[in-house]
Amino acid sequence: MVKCPVKLLALRVEDVMIKKVHTIDAGFSTRYAARMMDYLRVSSLVVVSDGRIVGIITERDLVSNIVAKACNPEKTLVKDVMSSPVITTRPNSQLENAIKYMLTNNIKKLPVVAGEKDEELVGILSLTDVARLHPAIYAKLLEYQNDLQLQVNTKAQQYIL
C-alpha cells in the first residue's frame, strides 16, 4: 500500500468542513435543484426525505442524467438522479483518512453527520474547500492519489498483458 506523504496529525474533518449545508427534498424536480444550486452558487445539494439524508445531487448528476440524456428537468425528480446511498463521515474523523477515501473513490463532496444514528447533518467536506483552505495539504494528497493511480494502472497492465 502507498503511504501518504503528509500527516495531518491533529486536523479533523470538523476543522475544515463547511457548516452551512444546503438540502433539497427528494421529491423536487431536477430543474428546481439546478436553479437552487445556481442561486446558492453551490455544486451540490444533500438530498433529504422525511428528515433523513437519502442522497446527494451534484452538477455532474444533472449533466449526466438530465442534459446528456435530454430528459425533461421539470418532470424528472431529484430522487431519480441523485447519488445514493450517500457516503458520510463524522466531524471527529481524521481529515487525512476522509480525503484519502474521497480521492480513492472519486468523491468530491462528503456530508458530515453526527448523533447516535448519524441522523444530524452538521456540515459537508469538499475537496474544493480543502484545496482552497489548505493548498499545501491538497497538493501532497494529489501526489498520493497520483502514486496510487500509478500503482493501480501497473497492476491492471499485468492482467492485460
Which structural class do you get from the secondary structure elements? alpha+beta
CATH architecture field: Roll
Query: Roughly how much helix do the residues carry, as a percent range?
Result: 40-55%
Q: Give Rg in angstroms.
A: 17 Å
What's the N-to-C terminus distance? 22 Å
What average pLDDT do the residues reach?
82
The biggest beta sheet reads: 3 strands, mixed
What's the shape? globular
The largest beta-sheet arranges its strands as: 1-2-3
CATH class: Alpha Beta
Percent of residues in beta strands: 15-25%
Low-pLDDT residue spans: 152-161
Number of domains: 1
Secondary structure: number of strands:
5
CATH homologous superfamily assignment? CBS-domain
SSE pattern: EHEEHHHEEHH
Give an overview of the whole structure:
The strands form two sheets. This protein has a three-stranded mixed β-sheet. Strands 4-5 form a two-stranded antiparallel sheet. The protein has one domain: CBS-domain. It contains six helices and five strands, in the order βαββαααββαα. The protein is globular and about 45 Å long. The chain has helices at residues 30-40, 59-67, 78-81, 95-104, 127-133, 135-160, and strands spanning 23-25, 44-49, 52-58, 109-114, 120-126. The chain is α+β, with helices and mostly antiparallel strands. The model is unreliable at 152-161 (pLDDT under 50). Helix 4 packs across helix 6 and helix 5 crosses helix 6.
At a glance:
By secondary structure, this protein is α+β, with helices and mostly antiparallel strands. It has helices at 30-40, 59-67, 78-81, 95-104, 127-133, 135-160, and strands at residues 23-25, 44-49, 52-58, 109-114, 120-126. The protein has one domain (13-160): CBS-domain (Roll), CATH 3.10.580.
